[in-house]
Structures
1.
Amino acid sequence: MTAFLDRHIGTTADAQRAMLDAIGIAYGADERPVDALMREAVPASIRSAADRVSVLPAAASEAEALAELRVLANRNTVNRPMIGLGYYGTLTPSVIQRNVLENPSWYTAYTPYQPEISQGRLEALINFQTMVSDLTGLDTANASMLDESSAVAEGMLLARRGSKAASHTFVVDADALPQTKALLATRASALGIELVERDLAGGETLPEDLFGVFVQYPGASGRIWDPSAVIDAAHLAGGLAVVAADLLALTLIASPGSLGADVAVGTTQRFGVPMGFGGPHAGYMAVRSGLERQLPGRLVGVSQDADGHPAYRLALQTREQHIRREKATSNICTAQVLLAVMASMYAVYHGPEGLKEIASGVASKARFLATQLEKAGAEIVHADYFDTITVRIPGRADAVVADAHAAGILLNPVDADTVSIAADETTTYEDILAVATVFGAGEGSFAYIPVTSVPAALARQDEYLTHPVFHAHRSETAMMRYMKSLADRDYALDRGMIPLGSCTMKLNAATEMAAITWPEFAQLHPFAPEADVQGSLELIDQLEAWLADVTGYDAVSLQPNAGSQGELAGLLAIRGYHLANGDDHRTVCLIPSSAHGTNAASAVLAGMKVVVVATDELGNVDLDDLRAKIAQHADEIAALMITYPSTHGVYEHDVLDITAAVHAAGGQVYIDGANLNALLGYSRFGDLGGDVSHLNLHKTFAIPHGGGGPGVGPVGAKAHLAPYLPGHPQAQRTAHAGGHVFEGGPVSAAPYGSAGVLPISWAYVRMMGADGLRDATAAAVLAANYVAARLGDHYPVLYSGEQGRVAHECILDLRPLKEATGITVDDVAKRLIDYGFHAPTMSFPVAGTLMVEPTESEDLGELERFVEAMIQIRAEADEVAAGVWPADDNPLVHAPHTAASLLMGEWNHAYTREKAAYPTHALIAGKYWPPVRRIDNAYGDRNLVCACPPVEAFAL
């Protein structure tokens, strides 16, 4: 049977030998050829000992891995979740599960930085933004947040930026979700924000001095009340009002916008996205007019292409963190696109009438349950509620919760006297009967009456989801075709290579993906009892131990649900360590100028001051400048953040000297794990002097990018920092792999972050084994060096190591091309679309360059296809320079070419239609046609439209 690693790694042994010959690597007859390359590329001083014993088990076959996952799944118990607290059972329409969640056309796509070939998912995100904006009653929504609790934290920071008040006080609703309170405390502490809790629904007054107020609507207890007076009071004090609202409830109750809110946040989980033991789920944020340029994360807007036709793209891209760095509005550099697409499709599938019907059904079930419990003698605490009732049963709460659990139902024990119970879309009459029976109701008292407890004074008056897209796809046939039409407009890994540097677009194998939709993983509530989630906890323990082993750390927390949150968690651990040692003066974070932009933004959010360290002409950290900055700031040094291999795609030889210098100054070393896929199996961060790192499971460990999310960004640390890693007050247990207890505050809403996708990385590591992970690293480095060698005569390779080798990516310098021919990096990127490729990373980390990362998953034929395309594009640019085509009328400056642009009207260009459409004859058999021509980003920013345009806008 063929081993999984032979399915995962695209290049065969024969192909690798041919590639090494092309590079000029000599290898012995008695060794693996790739080992000769790695000897040249990876500095000898950092290589792991050849006899190091790994704790990873030997590689399993695909069938064996699935069988083991089935054993773990069977250790979970899926009981009926009626806990609520922001997580609910939901019915994922099968047409959405099969055609989005399980469809590689959606889950293998990359972030839509090349909008011309991302029109499908951008339309889905415009639908998402329109859905959120309509339901919240606010003007502009972004393209998703990481989860509800972190969205509230981002709302707090937005209020601080947008408020005219000089205050440091933020008021928190006493009826907020407990996980949100805990996360707010984590984020506020590092930034000097004072949180003041008030029983807002109970009438407690606001402090005189504040910059914002946060309201949970409905409350965690289920209570519905009118917060408009509190919002008005916050405005009078100069603050902004942030409201966390349940989108399903908003189909029945007044929208936050109509109540005066400035910002609305929340989650879209109950719009068809499984609970997944806590994630991934798409959070949301919407703002009133005037605050749209303060929005964190991504915003999809409508612009126009070269023919003046409407076209979608990411708006206000200067907010992206790799550009704004420490001045960024947030450290978030990703989103939850795949889950946002699912939620938007749920709204498209059901439409406003369907959503309202679901909401009415949920509210009626809650009311019906409440009436039965009242008959049994229980006290319903609040008269007005949507889906959650709080029940007072003095001294009986624990017993009732235990009895319900025995009956297969999960309730929420608030305290010894109180239980809360949430109905959802999946709640049945039988569930209500079972709960009522546990409370002592007699069987003869059940007669279902569909009445809600939503107060008439707060009934929703304004319309929502009026755009035709939410009315046009009612049959499954129409829905299936709509999703297919969007997928066809996009370019994903199921079409071809996505050679993006710094963003590892490797194979997401079907076997790795298989378990995420199994009910035993997908239908778990994140706060389910420990006894119900033994299989998931074991999987988490195993994955934590495996990741600790391959990185050289002692402990790993899987809680961060994005790389940016992992960065923040690691820096907060360093902050906690220094504070515990009495070193509160250590606040300076040294960051090389070549670093990922999120590094600087994360440091600021961790309460640190950024000091930039220079890089030399080879792209390495300038050791002299580092020592000078250390001397300048002396006892203030908290940390150094570096990426290894570097963001320039080079293995730095001085890394041990760099980390030693920081440690000698009393600082900690944070190694950004973005490029771990170039190190795995050959060296470990902990052995390089790293104290803490985040890892991108969506890069190195095969979790799909999903069009810009989900991501998982675990954080690993040495033992002295482990106590400060993120914990969670509602976690099923406190001990982690290796016995470590994490006492830091949470950075995500759920105890284990996006636990629903962890089976993907578990399966990847299990099927690769230690040797397979090492082979994948070597194959990736070989592919990058092959591309660099093949293209070096056509485009200078900007950085390389001492032996002239790159790591897993190479930077092609297109600035000389522009000087010689006038052709820009944008022209080359758009022309690659005509050749059937997604472009490499443009102008990062160096303006005017392309950063290419082929990954280990691509075979030699695909690598050659890319190389030949780049060589031909260089030849086309040279023809422009030679005067064969005018500088303003050639196939590069007009790229990409749509079918309509080639077929409609007269052809008046200096080049032929054939040259435009089929620059190589191989494209004739399977051409990908971009749906729009080059998009005018500046026009879109000047004319900001971030909701569904009317259908008339698309009329030709």
Note: The radius of gyration is 28 Å.
2.
Amino acid sequence: MSLVKSRKIRELNAYFTPVGFVIEETTDDIDKLQIDQQDPLNEWIGQFEANKYIALFHLGFLEKEKWFSPAIEYLYHIVDLLIKKLSKQSDLEFSRESVQVELIEEELNRLKEEVPFVIGAEYVDATWLQALWEKLLAVFRMEIRTYEGTVSRYFAEYSSNINVVGRVFFHLVENKEEQYPFAFMATYSTKPVKSKKAVHTPLKNALVEFKGDEKTLLALMATVIKAAEQSRFISELLESGELFSPLKLTNKEAYTFLKEIVIYEGAGIMCRVPDWWRKSNNSVRLSVTIGEKEPAKVGLDAIMDFSPSLKIGDEALTEQELRDFLAMAEGLVQYKGKWVEVNKEKLEVVLQAFEKVKDLAKDEVLSLGDAMRMELNINKVLDLSSEEIEVSISNGQWFRNMKETLIHPMSMQKVDTVPSFQATLRAYQESGFQWLYKMSQLGFGACLADDMGLGKTVQIIAFLEYTRIHYGGKALLILPASLIGNWQKEIEKFAPELTYQILHKSDRKGAEELCVSDSAFLCITTYGMAVRLEELKNRQWDFLILDEAQAIKNPGTKQTKAIKGIPAKMKIAMTGTPIENRLSDLWSLFDFLNQGLLGTAKEFTNFTKGLTDDGIGYAKLRKMINPFVLRRLKTDKKIISDLPDKLEMNEYATLSKKQVALYKQLLEQIAVKLEEAEGIERKGLILSSIMKFKQICNHPDQYLGREEFKPENSGKFEQLREICETIYVKRERVLVFTQFREMTEPISDFLKNIFLKEGFVLHGGTPIKKRNQMVEQFNGEQYIPYMVLSLKAGGVGLNLTAANHVIHFDRWWNPAVENQATDRAFRIGQTKNVMVHKFVTKGTVEEKIDAMIEAKQKLAGDILSASGEQWITEYNNEELMQLFVLGGDVK
């Protein structure tokens, strides 16, 4: 079946988890019936679904495909490395399913540095890589155990591009004789009768071992014959028979051998040579030292000192010594006890680059931003035309110390929080506060990117209160409307003296215009209002802070452009998902924080095109942005030790206009009825009224009995969106509890659009068999993002440890019942910190009762748990109306 349309229909992606990886397929619903079953992508999707480790191992035999996402390409690089290492095992035919192939420390470190910016990248550490490596190696061992042919034939069946090494090795070592400073020997691997492991023995022994068996000897020598066809040096050794004996070599002969290694290894001969050749420590290179002294001013425009130098390994080289090398014949020469390659073409390029940079250091200026950009492409910043020249950056003392301090804020010189800040910060939060202060002193934009639940808000408040007391000024905070209530509560709790103003239509009285007040230190507004309020662009703000800064990830939108047009001395972004999947999001974030650091959008796009070629680009990019992004994770053992296993927090939603109108209408009706009701009737009226208030706070349509449930008509739905969008980006899972069965489907329908996938709904009407199936699937590897549960049906008997978020959409006002529900996720078998989000609608009966419960719990938690909501009926009419009435913040 052929495709009706030429555009791609299916995409295969991957994201990383603490225990491995998950393959994720996206399908264009409109065209999903037009799938070409012969398309390689569709073939691989089926294989990944059957067994992802077998499919991934076989993926390594392919050439890179266009449909590879960055995550799959990274996994491909790991498999490719394994297959190459397997193909270079000279005793592979002997060991077969017993083969041992290790990831050495250098390879592990490189793989950790080269992780792309994708979901779950933070989980990729040495333990994660070793576990994946063993699973992939197990696939090879399993397949080769039952394969009847040779190992070479096994590899050839999958790819003609894989050359399994032969059993012959070439060795070159240094020798102490002046005339013959090198020694050469050829060996081959053989397996002694009583040994499980192959050993290396001189090649001349093969003439004895295979005497009379010309066919086996020719098979052994096949790789040497192949190399001799391209190498005159090996051809002469083979013809003369000298190849079968240890040889002394001159430095000229050794240089010929070293230059031809690519020929030998291409023929299937493993070469063991001195480390200095493999690591290019014998080549002259240009090094540029930047930032030895502290610049006169701060910010990315600060002027940095820089100077070029020449080096061989770690040894300094003078310009005259380089010119002396150029006067010598090409080859290997000794310099300060080390062998150096004299390659005139390369040395000429290095000399020209050195002279050019020397002239630049005299006549040009290098900004701190330029110095940072050198991490990505030093040749471009210094306008060096040749990409072949190796130029290294050496950070001077000030530059090195500055970057190290920002990357490791625990080592910073500390300032104390001010007395008016009324909170005790955890150790990592204290580091965050110190880091924000240091960034402000250096004039840098800062991205506070801690995981959800680690307390970004309280760190920002500590920083704002410190700067308000010591420096004054004016700060602007832009956030989603659903977070206004949370910020108000946090400010009032932790910095009650910090003056703030809400610039939002919900805070406006009548036709009153919204204007920036000169008396408030902090102005708080929403992303939507920031586009409309021209006054924001006409002021020079000291601080501009974005909460949920992923709102500006699309650089082309009107909203992003408007916010980037607001002038500020320091810009701060808060986000729990700074860099996930699309690097264009990263560019837009840094275009706001530190404009120009990542170049123009076009320059950055050109840079990202080559990122997946070898992974080095990811390492460079990560190294460059690390000083400007502070990210701590709940999975970090250092952070976990400072956290409770269960993080509980109130999430404050704001009523919509429709909710306010219905709430006030109900309030008036209750006031009249309370005057007439007595006894049982009065208790019934109070409890039914509480239920109705809860319904209004959930959504107007629940109270009115309608089925539309538009999200914009409920503050809780908007709050749910903010939290679940972050959960989705991180591919975590969430349980949403409601005491109302009729709310389970509307909530699920809403979440479907956020997670782009349907989760589960469980209530009293769900059959027992189906419940068990849901639990099994939810806890399985396939990504089921959410489960919506009615509190009574889902509060007991379920083990849902795959979720690490619990949301109480509405409140039972009985701590025992809520805790029992929370413990569906927070129980034996849970390996992650569980975050419990309790929704409270600001200014309503929900907020007042929540505060009362908190106070009562401290006094008599057991009594409260047993009484449920009955205690509220004991209030007199005046106390009840004070409990029900809307708070002063709700208009």
Note: The two ends are 61 Å apart (CA to CA).
3.
Amino acid sequence: MNSADPNTTDASALKLPATAAQQGIWFGQEMDPTSPMYNTGECVVVCGALDVDLLEVAVRRVLADAEALHARFVRDEDGVLWQDWARRPRWPFHVLDLTAEPDPVAAAEAWIAADMARPTDLAAGPLVTEAVLRTGAEEYRWYQRIHHIAVDGFGAAMVLRGVAELYTALANGEEPSGPGFGRLSTVVDEEAAYLASDRFGRDRDFWTTHMADSPEPVSLAEGVPSVSGDVLRRTLLLPAEEAARLQRVAAGARASWSDLALAISAAYVARVTRAKEVVLGLPVMGRMGSAALRVPCMVMNIVPLRVPVDTGRSLLDLTGEVAAQVRRTRPHHRYRHEQLRRDLRMVGTERRLFGPVVNIMPFDYRLRFGEHQGTMHNVSAGPVEDLSLGIRLMADGGLRVELDANAALYRPDVLTTHLNSFATFLRAALDAPEEPLGHARMTRTVTLAELRRARAEAPCPPVGDTTAAAPDVLALVRERVRLTPDVIAVEQGERRLSYAELFSAAERCARRLVAARVRVDTPVAVLLPRGPEIVVAILGVLLAGAGYLPLDPGWPDSRLNGVLDDAGGPLVVTDADHAHLVAGRPTLLVGGQEDSRSDMDSPHRTPLPEVPGEALAYVIYTSGSTGVPKGVLVSRAALASFVAAATERYGITASDRVLQFAAPHFDASIEELFGALTTGATLVLRTEDMLESVPRFLDACAEKGVTLVDLPTAFWHEVAHGMDAGEGELPASVRVVIIGGEAALHDRVERWHRRVGPSVRLFNTYGPTEATVVTTAALLRHVG
């Protein structure tokens, strides 16, 4: 082995063998050399008058001391992979002033996205790109892209922190010697010594025994996990109260907050998949007690964490089990997961080692650049085989949750659903940490079929014998069709349906349902993607006298079939693209030629039924945060009462353009859908690209002339924060913002009011699904 210092002048000595971690990444990149999937990126937002020239000096000096960033990777005739410094590739330092752009932040994000999409040639380099993008008078984005073969997340953070510290010292007139990084050769030598030691053999024996009888890892996706070049990301910032609760509950369990977070993650995966044992992937730093603690390089490992989820035990018990598993495996964390997979293959155990990866991130994401504050934002952490859940405590006390997913396995809306469901599950788990995981409060009450049987014993009153004080929602929609038939009722991109077109299509759907012998006061499932067709189907089900049960096409097969079985196997309204998800079940296909045929002009057309107010309007299944999903039945009278109250409270009129943000299987969608259609407003269906960033969301709302938005509080927090950071402004068209699901942060509300002024009304709402969408709505006013 040649472990010479790469800073020496002997060209023959300027190379080191690649480490095991680097070899795994090299082989992965070789499978598709043109893929950018192993690019990792960090963006530091600096607020203040940054000295760009001084920053470049600091960056170049620190990077010069980080040897792993300057290697080229070559394989010799014997198949040995080397990292070679005989010719250090030149790396660029870009400086761009984007302040003249219409949207500087969006321009910066586009530039970063384009750079992240560039593949890296490991044989030629460079492995790193640096850039400073000016996005405001005193706002800069320092961006760093490094190939994963050079550094892991801890190593990248070391470089960023080293640059910030050197910049600050130089700005203060000091002349430090450098960041003090260790030599990469010590890491290579240390690994060689480990591979030749008895400890390596003991670690191999431990893991092969530990994993010999492990179950097949479960996934929240339907496809087969595999490395993909595209990664989707969704983030959620939970308030400081939740982080404090997490720490308090962990202290009560005599465990760390990270152990508790792992236990909650395992319980969530088990709840969704109904697995009795979950095998998570646990990223480990691999640096404690090692020379790598001072060396920016790639040494991070992922180890399997087996978690039996016994529903008879509590979350506190599960946390103790997780903590014990981590303690038991910790002495063996150095053993590479790639090697373990090869070992198990040798003994005939060919399977993935783990399912979703849960990354507890301990880094402090704040940096100081002289007198200016900087905050690190991860752009990409590299490829994701299946799903990666990141959890970290923020400097301001909040709890940040990130979901990265393989784009080949998860749709954006499905990922958003999982993120919101996990947050809800986390809160519920912290509410009842001592209750058994199988307790009714933690799992379920009764099935929908049981509720339907109970209702059958108390049949609906005769038509007209109803106590509903509010008019039926269908009657209100019919009136809008009569008064304004040509007004646009539903809009998505370039697709538009007038009120007349919408109701005509809904009636055709209803007659087909009645002809299919759908009965009044029974559920009909609707399995369609977000679009005008699902609005038509919902109205069609109601016109047929049934109650609609919205399903998400992105749900795992276990959840989809679990809900349908629990509901008693109802008819499913779907289209040709999704019919395979419910193969073998009774279906009604829409969207094809059959859907376009109408018996409206036939003298023998199928009549539509009269429906009592206490008949079923819809069924919403809860997320399962306090147990497996349970069906909540809501009557037409309850729906009518809620819609009347909501439209009056928010002041919705025919001139409004209401954004339909929530997924149809969330009850917030009811507030949006019927709030618009019963008043003659236009329902603007959200598209997935609106969720890509705060600027894109605000720009899309402005482009579509949205006047009313109804957002989860956590997403509104992100929007408000983005506006504070200069990432966009609330469109002038917006007059009402409704947030719900949790309390709004006081300081965020105050800053919001100071920014947007009193002309925009901000409502904070709350209500359990069982109580028909919303039970309380508070108008948040500026009190500063």
Note: The longest helix spans residues 412-431.
